Amino acid sequence: MRQHHRSTRLLGSLLLVAAAGVLGVGAAPPAAARHATPLDRIVPAPASVTPGGSPYRLTRDTHIRVDDSREARRVGAYLADVLRPSTGYRLPVTTHGRGGIRLRLAKGPFGAEGYRLDSDGRGVTITAAAPAGLFHGVQTLRQLLPAAVEKDTVQPGPWLVAGGTIRDTPRYGWRGAMLDVSRHFLTVDQVKRYIDQLALYKLNKLHLHLSDDQGWRIAVDAWPRLATHGGSTQVGGGPGGHYTKADYQEIVRHAASRHLEVVPELDMPGHTNAALSSYAALNCDGVAPPLYTGTEVGFSSLCVNKEITYDFVDDVVRELAALTPGRYLHIGGDEAHSTSHEDYVTFMDRVQPIVAEYGKTVVGWHQLTGATPAKGALAQYWGLDSTGAAEKAQVAEAAQNGTGLILSPADRIYLDMKYDANTPLGLSWAGYVDVRRSYDWDPGAYLPGAPPEAVRGVEAPLWTETIENSAHVEYMAFPRLAGAAELGWSPAATHGWDGYRVRLAAQGPRWDALGIGYHRAPEVPWPAR
Ligand code: TNX
Q1: Where is the domain boundary, 139, 168, 197?
Q2: Whether the CB of 71 sits within 6 Å of ligand 1
Q3: Residue 200's Cα: distance from chain center in Å?
Q4: Residue 435 maps to which CATH number?
Q5: pLDDT tens digits for 88-138?
Q6: Nearest CA among 528, 515, 520, 488 for reference residue 501
Q7: What region does 436 belong to: left with phi over 0, alpha with psi -120 to 50, or beta?
Q8: What pTM value is reported for the model?
Q9: Is 10 among the domain residues?
Q10: What is the pLDDT of residues 354-363, one digit of tens each?
Q11: 385 lines ligand 1 (CB under 6 A)
């Protein structure tokens, strides 16, 4: 460090760094430093922020110094990829020598995903116990740099990072987003683009809704017509599509490179028209229905009393589990209006052990709590504030008995709900969900009677009845996705709309720089363009 400090002083263009180093805490900052983003203007809000000291200025001599491990190098390479196009700097990733930005793996109170970021005139150091923590720290560093850092052409700078320390660990281990690729198919590239956007806000689960009435989207060797026939259309009658196993693995790999785990969902026993249409034998009457391109729900069911149904489930779960390195497999279970309660319970009693047999933990929509959730299963709650007390109590009771909860209340964080009456896309069955409404609730106290420790986190679903491409996805997800991320990451003590709307407003220019066409919600003080 000393060495580094002396040699940078020789470079005229770096006078600011030298001056900042000499001035230290308390002295008036150099003029340009006034433009550094305040250390607490971050979404999701960090657990603790201690501003102070000199800013760091990124220059053409900055190195990204990493520990000599493959994982740390990877995070370093990712950071370099983010910073090089806009700064125009070389930013070599090195394991020794001088480094303005340092990524350090070390023991400490960071947990699996937390980090500390220290910034002063000499550099920025991100310390974490695990690579995911370094990665999340890098997302914080991005937000501390000017929004123009997100552009893909060289920008003028200066590239200042305010001085001080951030200590940060997530409130919840499950911070998810769900993408429905069944109602409208989204390509591998479209899914990867969304993954990159989720990573900006430290989300760590991508739940892929891979099957529904309108489309089966994953290749299964034992039942090839699921994809070739069941995947051949979508809402509105377009060509649909499906992921080959290689496609799916590419998504999983890309997600892993952004420290997200893919949670695949095969929705059963309802929402299965695409499968029923692909194989007549799966139907109780032995007759395959036509493909479906409308948006009704609740009209299809697997045939619970036919043995072939469980051969089918065994095959599809086995093949999907084998492609999925993550712990979880989501079996749906919502809106099974064409399955009797008795059949629903029978079905879940038979299917949950199959998921366990292939090494996965069951996740289901909260209707699963009306059957007997397997030990360790998670239930995803998608009710509303107005959902009846009995239904809420059933979920709360399951939570008291050990079922973990993922909170996705539809009238709060369903990203497919319209913001207001003028929103051109989306649905409104759960009401309009404006930005404040989607942010202003506490997952820890949301479901009456559920023990706070049963809450594993939050997830923002995006159903795609009206969503056809990335522009649509982004308009509905941004800005509400950022609020969901904050509810999942930030301590309850940081929660507050007045502070949030200011931090959120600062994201607008970043989304502009990234080409994300977001909804400029009137309740947020976006900077003029
Ligand atoms: C309800 S939420 C559904 C989906 C629809 C969504 C539209 C849930 C588990 N099921 O089938 O796509 O509403 O908002």
Answers
A1: 168
A2: no
A3: 9
A4: 3.20.20.80
A5: 999 999 998 776 999 999 999 999 999 999 999 999 999 999 999 999 999
A6: 520
A7: alpha
A8: 0.93
A9: yes
A10: 999 999 999 9
A11: no
